[in-house]
Amino acid sequence: MEKIKELLPDWKGLKTTCRGGQHHGLRGVLAAALFASCLWGALVFTLHLALRLLLSYHGWLLEPHGAMSSPTKTWLALVRIFSGRHPVLFSYQRSLPRQPVPSVQDTVRKYLDSVRPVLSDEDFDGTAVLAEEFLRLQASLLQGYLRLKSWWASNYVSDWWEEFVYLRSRNSLMVNSNYYMMDFLYVTPTPLQAARAGNAVHALLLYRHRLNRQEIPPTLLMGMRPLCSAQYEKIFNTTRVPGVQKDYIRHLHDSRHVAVLHRGRFFRVGTHSRNGLLSPRALEQQFQRILDDPSPACPQEEHLAALTAAPRDMWAQVRRSLKTQAAEALEAVEGAAFFVSLDSEPAGLTKEDPAASLDAYAHALLAGQGHDRWFDKSFTLIVFSNGKLGLSVEHSWADCPISGHMWEFTLATECFQLGYLADGHCKGHPDPTLPEPQRLQWDLPEQIHPSISLALRGAKTLSENIDCHIFPFSHFGKSFIKRCHLSSDSFIQMALQLAHFRDRGRFCLTYESAMTRLFLEGRTETVRSCTREACNFVRAMENREKTDPQCLALFRVAVDKHQALLKTAMSGQGVDRHLFALYIVSRFLHLQSPFLAQVHSEQWQLSTSQIPVQQMHLFDVHNYPDYVSSGGGFGPADDHGYGVSYIFLGNDMITFHISSKKSSTKTDSHRLGQHIEDALLDIASLFQEGPHLKRQFRGLGEEVSGYRCGFVCSQTGDSETPTTSTDF
Predict the structure, then answer these.
(1) Residue 251 catalytic?
(2) Per-residue model confidence as pLDDT tens digits over 658-687
(3) Where are the transmembrane segments (predicted)?
(4) CA–CA distance, 639 with 54 (Å, rounded to integer)
(5) 402 and 216 in contact (C-beta within 8 Å)?
(6) How far apart are CA 27 and CA 15, in angstroms?
């Protein structure tokens, strides 16, 4: 402080007086304040730096499951000390490390290893020559630019991934980009459409309120390593605006209404009053008013939303006309907190035809009729006429775990905490003083009518071409796999390799999404699941001369390889995002790289993803196993490929969502589903408990695998529904 006082000017005559008559110069007060501020700033900086260094440690990720070394225990204790007692959602953001740029030599080596099983000897030799030429001539230059970017950018690849993979794509969002999330599989808390919409919208807005106040705890991987929370910022009040060459994401600070579509008519429904957020019963009242409104849709208004399913350049051009002719209505939709679609048809599992009804449910969520979703919004809440729910999510702003986290909260809150009356209505009382929902008026110029018709034809063609299949696999689940001391995800991935080989008779490049949110603004990385080890296992399973112990040994080797690839991808040392970033740099520099061009043109004929259940504390899977979301799905990445997602429901069930194109003669979603079921049972038979499982479930008879004939539906009034959060 004395040194600081010497550097400060001397204001003569200016003094402060303390009790006791002692006089201290103003310089002393300023010196004390400056010293305290510098000390506090240095302390905060040191804590953030120490935490960032601690979070850069990934040794824990490489340790065997269930075992924790002494260094990792010490690391975990230090992370908890430096994290503070009550971290909030964005507490760790400034301390997260940046995603590292891998060695280009290692990346190319891993790439060649990944394509070896799917290429002939001649094709592989040609690829190896291109790779060697790339390393010799261009790799060092491109890598240098990439490292330079990594020094100043928050993440060296995520901004380019968002721009070039999503925002610059000119294809329709429907099926090609958007994905869906499902309701409870076997139960519907109320058959009243307006009531379910009221509770669900209220629950979503409660989530937004908690998000704004950072009351959502940060996600911790394995309960100890925080993940990046940046993607949560754009869940609400967000829309993807089409552009001629590139879209952009528009995010508002706040929005106090939702946009609603019912029978081709658009409405603006306020979500707040002077007293704050509307109650679920008040929201139900507003949605019921919309359902009771007999007014018809205006000409072309009914199919207007098909434009959001059109190719992006076309939609961008039409939107310019809407901005001038129907600016108020367009702003009401794009500026809404989110979009709500009140469908006129029922959906969900039925006793009469469980398989077909679930497939139709998935199709309605993924594509609908092509004109009943606003695909540009960050997400659309879909409420069917029988009270079933669903979610259609735009992909550019975030990945599935973010919307999945919100969806788990929504289902748990609207069903368990908010609840319903015995007659199916929301709890509480209507508010007769609320104004009627505002009907949006679209002044659609004549010149865009042909564009709407063209967009509708294209959307219907795309919708009719998608083949969706869902099947709940209930023969065994996560508990059996854990008893085998194996990773549940790796177990499923190897079963998918076996099933796909039986379906197509050959191996193919396989995409599995792995998150890179261990790093600041990290998104995803690809795990190339079709490895040489996996192929060796599949060939052994198809070779009758191989014994079960031999197949089991190869299976364990393949699982270990997959686990190693998954951990490598999560720690920022994967293949595809690095090669993608190098390709983008080469385009910026106008450098022609045959090797990177070949990598960029690869087609993923098997695209897979696991949907995690992140908030198990919200659900009681033991007492109420039916009250868990059944996951979601997405469209195939290739015209002749499959999209497969899966979710573990509790300990003894796995739900698969399979999609493909009907126009392809090489794919059939139902056929692959049967192969997946057979593959899982065949793999289970390799273990000590397996033969019992196989004998018990192999003969399906008239039962459809996984569907329960006596499934519960509260429409009959017989369901035992948990009503409060105290049940958990």
Answers:
(1) no
(2) 999 999 999 999 999 999 999 999 999 999
(3) 29-51
(4) 45
(5) no
(6) 9
